[in-house]
Amino acid sequence: MEKLVVIKNASGLHARPAGMFVKKAAEFKSVVEVKAKGKTVNAKSIMGIMSLGLAQGDELTVVANGEDQESAVAALVELVEGGFGE
Known about the structure:
It comes from bioreactor metagenome. The protein has helices at about 15-25, 45-50, 70-80; strands spanning about 1-5, 30-35, 40, 60-65. The protein is an alpha+beta fold and about 90 residues long. The chain has one domain (about 1-85): HPr-like (Histidine-containing Protein, Chain: A).
């Protein structure tokens, strides 16, 4: 299962929101990945997420495979769309 989402918060996916994203992804049993800028990274890896260098307006695709894939995608998309509370 996958869903496309656009980064809304002004500072993009810097350290704090990337940490929140990874922590949320780690709550799920599914394999969770992020596709952006032609790369695919493990959503549970802070270094992977930071390496994408995502800024406001950039698109990313949240991909999850496993028993709780729908919940994982929904939770992560909600986090991004909510601007990480910024």
